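// run 5 | inverse folding | seed 20
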């Protein structure tokens, strides 16, 4: 036989002769070197050469930072074990991550106490870590035998693979065909690795056989193995010289394909019992640590020489670490042992695993070996869970603490550990597990702090599970927690109050067991009031319940602090929702947007999944309110991706579909979408989401000209206004009531709008006030008010309200029989609505243009040389003889912008001067 090195090189040469694999892997490396990211999943049967290809791409990428890991069946139940091995060289870099991500990743690695980490939370941390690492140079992650990764590691790596784009990160996975445990990789680029063509297979066979090789025998081997390189090399090694020379018959059936593992196990069974025990210990020690394996084997009465037989058979290699010839060997050894044999191996490894850094693995070995309750083992698990929590590994924390509780004899200690396990389970994104753990706790066994923590966790779990009217129960549950905390834990009491406020903002009029004023009164009389941001937010909220105008100074101080001040990540994520709501009440759109962007950035960086989802949805709602529908679409897409990463009920999906966005888009089935969202929000107890469906209906009815219906819906919202939460509906109510010829209702709404808008003082509010005043003003004053509204709104981000101001102005001009004057604002409104993607408002505007005597075609994206809405508006004004400064003044844009778009118009239409525009438009 030839040397192993020669065999490996021959196999590598044959594999790299495959043009498809070579081209795909070379492309991946080239893109990664160029700073882009790419993923390939190498899929094929066992032994087909996936690992050799992985070796090849790693060797070709020596100029990159290469990270490698292989799935180990023996550690498949140990959360994040594979991920820890992949990133072990970068554990010290975790300090560069945000605290929440660092904590989640550490818990996942089993380095601190904590419950199993949510895969998405840990995924964000890993993505951040790899991206930070790639700054120092491109990174190549090689993941072998993916089907044997622990589930948490697999989910994290799949998440990262779907989200890398331009970081300089390459990921290559190998997956054995016929396995069903890698569904999370579906949709990633797959490269099927097939058997070698016959000529290459024969060349490989000849390269590994040193004696006589009968051509007929060679053909039988190649045919039976279907060109599988591992089967070829292993079979050639197991056959005798006479069999290879054709003097003896070959065994039947040949151990190929799925029978390779059985072949290895059969080979192991021929070894001495001591060698088999040594191999089992090695298979159960996933790090391949020779010292630990040697010590554990000695504890079982096995001498180091027992490994010689397996090493001579080339099933294992002993160097810096123990490496099995192929993961199939390790799988065969571990899976072929009895449960009692595996427990003895884990017990011996627990004794041998003495390094401080491996304390969590020692605890896992002890837990794997335990058969009955044992406080010493339970305490060891609690310590391991603590290490996981400190470094953010909540999945590991949950696993450790749950098992610790099972092994704890004392009832009170068991209740405390169950509560800690439930908290870790919830943090890891497993609310059902958290609820089951909470249900197993007797509250009387907890102290006051424990009871408060249980109530707060119960509230969060109810929401996460989407229980019927669950959100409606949250405020009262949090108030009960506040009472439990109030005596000894004032900081936790304040957190409970914030939870009650957030719950009330979500449940609104569907709230159960308490009401808004009771919460505000509790906030006002809380003990230990200080000058912190938390105190300011609490006071601003309580004051806004009593009087929004009086609360404005407090609101501005609190929200400005959140938007631009020195705020820790934890404080921001705790207070952002209340701050955003307070901004909405005073039309502070820029501050609201700043808080949301800041929150989303922190949540993304820290891996705060629940916050990220809600913040992105709130940001999408903000963009929709401003009329920036395309930006809202992108955000909603990300929200839905987050939804798919955490447990969701059908109702929870519905309330995250933005009915206000549906109203703007005005598709034929919009009422049905809004109706389903309303039903879902009602069932969940989310009164605020019910009101969002009303906003969607108002927008839809206004766009379609159903003014009476819009006025009725808007009036109901204002009449039940939740502490000024829906002041922004007042302009819609005024428009709808005026067009429905209910000027009394419109006048009452205007009085309230004057109070709210002037109190706010923001350009957005004042622009909407002028627009609303114009609708009710005498003809002599209306035009100036419309122009003022357009000018004021033009300085804001509220493009939707600006487009509607142009529309209302144009409609007013047409009713004044000034049809020619009406065309300019109507053209601008039409262009803006088409640009925004608001077809119903565009059609309403188009009909107004028709009434002025101008035909306005619908946009046809297939028309050659078609212009964008803004280009079309500028071209039309240029055609009518307006100069660039005049167009800029009319459209509230800069002259340079006009010039830029006109040059594009000329190029698209093939004209050279303004005079030619009249001919082609």
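// decoded
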């Amino acid at each position: 036989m030839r040397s192993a090195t020669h065999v490996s090189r021959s196999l590598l040469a044959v594999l790299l002769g495959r043009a498809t694999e070579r081209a795909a892997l070379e492309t991946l490396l080239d893109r990664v070197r160029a700073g882009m990211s790419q993923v390939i999943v190498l899929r094929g049967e066992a032994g087909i050469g996936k690992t050799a290809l992985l070796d090849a791409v790693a060797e070709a990428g020596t100029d990159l930072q290469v990270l490698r890991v292989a799935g180990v069946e023996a550690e498949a139940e140990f959360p994040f074990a594979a991920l820890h091995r992949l990133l072990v060289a970068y554990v010290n870099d975790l300090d560069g991550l945000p605290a929440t991500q660092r904590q989640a990743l550490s818990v996942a690695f089993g380095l601190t106490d904590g419950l199993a980490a949510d895969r998405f939370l840990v995924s964000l941390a890993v993505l951040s870590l790899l991206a930070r690492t790639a700054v120092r140079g491109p990174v190549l992650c090689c993941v072998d035998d993916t089907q044997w990764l622990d589930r948490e590691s697999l989910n994290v790596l799949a998440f990262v693979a779907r989200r890398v784009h331009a970081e300089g990160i390459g990921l290559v996975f190998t997956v054995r065909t016929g396995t069903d445990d890698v569904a999370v990789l579906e949709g990633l680029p797959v490269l099927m690795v097939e058997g070698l063509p016959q000529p290459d297979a024969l060349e490989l066979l000849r390269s590994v056989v040193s004696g006589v090789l009968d051509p007929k025998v060679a053909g039988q081997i190649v045919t039976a193995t279907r060109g599988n390189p591992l089967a070829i090399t292993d079979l050639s090694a197991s056959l005798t010289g006479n069999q290879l020379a054709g003097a003896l018959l070959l065994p039947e059936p040949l151990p190929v394909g799925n029978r390779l593992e059985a072949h290895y196990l059969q080979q192991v069974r021929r070894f001495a019992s001591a060698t088999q025990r040594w191999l089992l210990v090695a298979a159960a020690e996933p790090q391949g640590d020779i010292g630990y394996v040697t010590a554990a084997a000695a504890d079982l009465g096995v001498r180091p020489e027992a490994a010689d037989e397996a090493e001579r058979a080339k099933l294992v290699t002993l160097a810096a670490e123990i490496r099995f010839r192929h993961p199939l060997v390790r799988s065969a050894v571990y899976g072929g042992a009895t449960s009692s044999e595996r427990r003895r191996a884990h017990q011996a490894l627990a004794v041998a695993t003495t390094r401080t850094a491996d304390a969590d693995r020692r605890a896992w070995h002890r837990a794997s070996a335990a058969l009955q309750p044992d406080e010493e083992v339970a305490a060891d698990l609690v310590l391991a869970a603590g290490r996981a929590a400190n470094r953010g590994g909540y999945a590991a924390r949950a696993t450790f603490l749950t098992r610790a509780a099972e092994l704890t004899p004392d009832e009170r200690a068991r209740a405390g550990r169950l509560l800690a396990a439930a908290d870790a389970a919830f943090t890891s994104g497993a609310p059902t597990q958290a609820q089951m753990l909470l249900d197993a706790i007797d509250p009387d066994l907890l102290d006051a702090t424990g009871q408060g923590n249980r109530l707060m966790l119960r509230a969060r779990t109810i929401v996460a599970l989407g229980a019927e009217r669950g959100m409606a129960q949250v405020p009262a549950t949090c108030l009960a927690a506040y009472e439990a905390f109030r005596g000894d834990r004032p900081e936790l009491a304040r957190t409970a109050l914030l939870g009650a406020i957030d719950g009330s903002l979500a449940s609104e009029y569907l709230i159960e067991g308490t009401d808004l004023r009771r919460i505000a009164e509790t906030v006002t009389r809380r003990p230990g009031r200080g000058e912190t941001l938390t105190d300011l937010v609490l006071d601003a909220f309580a004051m806004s319940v009593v009087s929004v105008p009086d609360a404005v100074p407090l609101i501005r101080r609190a929200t400005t602090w959140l938007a631009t001040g020195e705020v820790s990540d934890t404080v921001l994520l705790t207070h952002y929702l209340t701050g955003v709501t307070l901004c909405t009440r005073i039309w502070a759109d820029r501050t609201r947007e700043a808080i949301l962007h800041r929150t989303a950035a922190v949540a993304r960086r820290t891996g705060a999944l629940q916050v990220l989802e809600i913040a992105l949805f709130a940001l999408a709602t903000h963009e929709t309110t401003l009329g920036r529908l395309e930006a809202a679409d992108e955000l909603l897409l990300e929200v839905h991706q987050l939804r798919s990463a955490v447990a969701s009920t059908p109702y929870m999906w519905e309330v995250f579909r933005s009915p206000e966005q549906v109203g703007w888009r005005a598709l034929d089935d919009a009422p049905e979408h809004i109706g389903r969202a309303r039903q879902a929000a009602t069932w969940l107890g989310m009164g605020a989401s019910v009101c969002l469906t009303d906003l969607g209906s108002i927008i839809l009815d206004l766009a379609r000209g159903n003014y009476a219906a819009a006025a009725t819906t808007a009036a109901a919202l204002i009449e039940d206004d939740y502490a000024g939460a829906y002041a922004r509906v007042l302009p819609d109510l005024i428009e709808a009531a005026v067009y429905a010829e209910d000027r009394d209702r419109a006048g009452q709404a205007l009085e309230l709008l004057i109070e709210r808008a002037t109190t706010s003082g923001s350009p957005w509010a004042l622009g909407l006030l002028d627009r609303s005043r114009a609708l009710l003003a005498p003809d002599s004053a209306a035009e100036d008010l419309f122009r003022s509204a357009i000018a004021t709104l033009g300085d804001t981000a509220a493009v939707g309200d600006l487009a509607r101001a142009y529309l209302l102005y144009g409609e007013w001009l047409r009713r004044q029989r000034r049809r020619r004057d009406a065309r300019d604002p109507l053209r601008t409104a039409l262009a803006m609505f088409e640009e925004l993607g608001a077809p119903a408002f565009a059609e309403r505007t188009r009909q107004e243009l028709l009434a002025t005597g101008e035909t306005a075609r619908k946009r046809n994206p297939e028309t050659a040389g078609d212009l964008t809405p803004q280009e079309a508006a500028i071209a039309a004004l240029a055609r009518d003889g307006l100069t660039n400064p005049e167009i800029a003044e009319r459209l509230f844009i800069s002259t340079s912008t006009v010039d830029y778009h006109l040059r594009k118009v000329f190029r698209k239409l093939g004209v050279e001067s303004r005079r030619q525009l009249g001919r082609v438009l």
